[in-house]
Amino acid sequence: MEKQVIQSVGFRNIVENGEVTGFQFKVRLPYYRGVFLSQLRTGTVTIDGEQITKEHVIWNINGQDFTAEEMKDDFKTHWSVLTPAVIKVKKPGGLAQGYHDLSYGFCFTSSYMPPIMQNEEALNPDTESMIFMPEFGHHVNSRRMIIV
């Protein structure tokens, strides 16, 4: 895996039944341990300035698809540090060939962090935290990507 959270490998359009229904990209967990899905807080995908809300985003972990709502209560599925997650974005027609500016933030709770660092304001995945903690996934990640 690459050092950057958003991986360059795996960025492509999604084709279902011969029709392009969206695009996908991979993210790695920037943490030294894995997390359970109920710990994740997902954000808004921004592609070329267009914001796509989490209702149109599916996380694929260990080969299984999950919505943000499904992950909230899933305390059994574990995301390992060694396995990138595939983020699937519903966008009819997908993306055109060429370069695209992609931003995405996510974060997660941790049992040993003080509550002040884990309230809704501090764990808003769409904004930088009052305390910069990229190793806890709390960072809005951006990367210029290419679809060929």
Detailed description of the structure:
- The chain is mainly β.
- The chain has one domain.
- Helices cover 3% and strands 45% of the residues.
- The chain contains one helix and twelve strands, in the order E-E-E-E-E-E-E-E-H-E-E-E-E.
- The chain has one helix spanning 68-72, and strands at residues 6-16, 19-27, 35-36, 40-42, 45-47, 50-52, 57-61, 64-66, 78-79, 85-90, 98-108, 139-147.
- The strands form three sheets. A five-stranded antiparallel β-sheet has the order 1-2-10-7-8. Strands 4, 5, 6, 11 and 12 form a five-stranded antiparallel β-sheet that branches.
- Strand 7 (57-61) and strand 8 form a beta hairpin.
- It is globular.
- The model has no long low-confidence stretch (mean pLDDT 88).
Low-confidence stretches: none
The pLDDT mean sits at 88
- What topology, given as strand order, has the largest sheet? 1-2-10-7-8
Q: What's the order of the H and E elements?
A: EEEEEEEEHEEEE
Structural class: mainly beta
Backbone shape: globular
Give the % helix: under 10%
> What's the number of domains?
1
Strand percentage lies at: over 45%
Tell me about the biggest sheet?
Answer: 5 strands, antiparallel
Individual helix count: 1
The tally of beta strands, per DSSP, is 12
Cα Rg: 15 Å
- Alpha carbon gap, first and last residue: 21 Å
